[in-house]
Structure to design on (269 residues):
């Protein structure tokens, strides 16, 4: 399923009134979604039918050259609403050559979503903004569905999960993980660490803040990693990618208790 950017924008606007402390981040994310929707629309035109086969690596099938014509316009629109450090970086990035852009984007294609990313945080953010729509589009075109419970990395690109999602299923919820690179969702066991595989419930504490009753921090005392899970059985209107961005206090709780997120979200909140 390809991202619904209009739905994300609408949810960001709503959450700005609910969580004023996250308003600046969500306003920036609205612009990111607008730009990503435009990138996705162009890719739908220039990539007709591509990415429909299940054979081979999703990463290997990504050709960053198809995104290069959109780099200047997309980043110029991001620049006007960026915080100062990102504004400075984007201005410098735009001065680079097409060849340099291609190298930077290819680095992210090769290793994005892994535990150790090769790029600096701002360069990785720029690459994610530009390439997330491409990866998600290719993942959505894979013919084969994911019908069985998967492991702790994405079955389509081998990236780490950025989120957990509880979707309504019968009288309860079924747990899914969402890929940090291509946005694929796959089913995952309920009581199980999404990083190291710890299965002892006593080693898997869960934290829920009063401000975010539908978002759980699922931690592991074995590997000291954690994952945020958006519980759609408690709030069916939530948009996991957006609600996660707004949940800034949960990052503070994890840091205070010594847990490191398996993979950070787009804006590092």
């Amino acid at each position: 399923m390809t991202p619904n950017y209009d739905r994300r924008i609408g949810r960001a606007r709503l959450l700005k009134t609910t969580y004023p402390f996250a308003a600046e981040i969500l306003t920036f994310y609205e612009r990111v979604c607008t730009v990503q929707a435009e990138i996705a629309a162009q890719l739908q035109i220039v990539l007709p039918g591509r990415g429909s086969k299940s054979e081979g690596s999703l990463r290997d099938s990504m050709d960053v050259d198809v995104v290069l014509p959109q780099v200047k316009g997309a980043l110029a629109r991001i620049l006007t609403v960026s915080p100062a450090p990102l504004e400075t970086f984007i201005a410098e990035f735009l001065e680079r050559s097409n060849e340099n852009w291609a190298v930077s984007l290819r680095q992210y294609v090769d290793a994005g979503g892994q535990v150790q990313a090769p790029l600096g945080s701002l360069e990785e953010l720029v690459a994610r903004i530009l390439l997330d729509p491409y990866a998600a589009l290719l993942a959505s075109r894979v013919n084969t569905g994911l019908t069985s419970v998967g492991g702790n990395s994405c079955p389509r690109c081998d990236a780490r999960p950025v989120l957990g999602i509880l979707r309504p299923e019968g009288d309860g919820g079924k747990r899914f993980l969402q890929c940090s690179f291509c946005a694929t969702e796959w089913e995952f066991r309920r009581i199980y660490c999404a990083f190291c595989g710890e299965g002892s419930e006593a080693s898997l504490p869960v934290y829920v803040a009063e401000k975010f009753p539908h978002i759980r921090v699922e931690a592991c005392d074995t590997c000291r990693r954690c994952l945020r899970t958006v519980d759609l059985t408690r709030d069916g209107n939530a948009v996991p990618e957006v609600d996660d961005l707004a949940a800034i206090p949960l990052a503070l709780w994890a840091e205070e208790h010594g847990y490191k997120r398996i993979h950070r979200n787009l804006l590092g909140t």
